[in-house]
Write a structure and sequence with these properties.
The protein has helices at residues 34-48, 69-90, 115-122, 128-144, 156-174, 191-194, and strands spanning 2-7, 23-28, 51-56, 94-103, 179-183. Helix 2 (69-90) packs antiparallel against helix 4 and helix 4 (128-144) runs antiparallel to helix 5. The protein is built from six helices and five strands. A three-stranded parallel sheet has the order 3-4-5. The chain has a two-stranded parallel sheet with strand order 1-2. The radius of gyration is 18 Å and the shape is globular. Strand 3 (51-56), helix 2 (69-90) and strand 4 (94-103) form a beta-alpha-beta unit. The protein is an alpha/beta fold.
């Protein structure tokens, strides 16, 4: 088995495998660079004949209710649009019964949105364009300083993750031959996780489901 641990630089991430049967390789991929996505997908197709599992766990979190418009755009472009772009680049090379897992967050739960927005996110027939329209509406409201009174959550990260959950459900519906889901890993000891606070004093069972999405 070959595991690719990718990053924007392609540097050695010192990823350890518990099994000698797993070979770890490093490569470049950026969620804001579609050329890097298609290039890596092409290499995997050429060298391995496809991909069995794709895990999207990259993300950006500017932990502030006063994030600049540039920071808001970065979160939406990486967490939502970038994740979608990676999925779309890799779907053509995924093998039969392959799995795609998008690492999301409880911040994307729809309880943080107004009832009318919840209904639009929950529409079982929504399309990728419908989700993009929702996100563009949020961007317009945020630029005008009226996002909260328009029913959106207090931080852009929440909207980016709700959008990620939404496109994951659409991709799962459109690709029934694959296992496609999103999950919340809980608090993790990363730069992103540390912005939300210290590690919990007690660690319970972690859930790999996203309810109320």
């Amino acid at each position: 088995m070959v595991l690719y641990a990718v990053s924007r630089t392609g540097a050695n991430l010192d990823t350890k495998s518990a099994s000698k049967a797993v070979e770890v390789r490093y490569d470049k991929l950026s969620l804001t660079d579609k050329a890097s996505m298609t290039a890596l997908a092409a290499r995997l197709q050429k060298e391995h004949g496809g991909c069995d599992v794709l895990i999207n766990n990259a993300g950006v979190y500017h932990y502030s209710e006063d994030a600049t418009l540039a920071q808001q755009k970065e979160m939406l472009d990486v967490n939502y649009r970038g994740t979608l772009a990676v999925c779309q680049a890799f779907l053509p090379i995924m093998r039969e019964k392959a799995r795609i897992v998008n690492v999301s967050s409880q911040s994307g739960l729809l309880k943080y949105f107004s009832p009318s927005l919840q209904a639009r996110f929950r529409n079982p027939d929504k399309t990728l364009q419908d989700v993009e329209s929702l996100v563009q509406e949020y961007e317009d409201a945020a630029a005008q300083g009226i996002a909260r009174e328009s029913g959106w959550p207090r931080m852009t990260y929440f909207t980016s993750k709700a959008a990620e959950n939404a496109i994951t459900s659409i991709l799962a519906r459109e690709n029934p031959g694959f296992f496609i889901n999103c999950c919340c890993p809980g608090w993790v000891g990363t730069d992103l996780g540390n912005q939300a606070g210290a590690a919990p004093k007690t660690v319970g069972k972690r859930s790999c489901s996203m309810e109320d999405t």
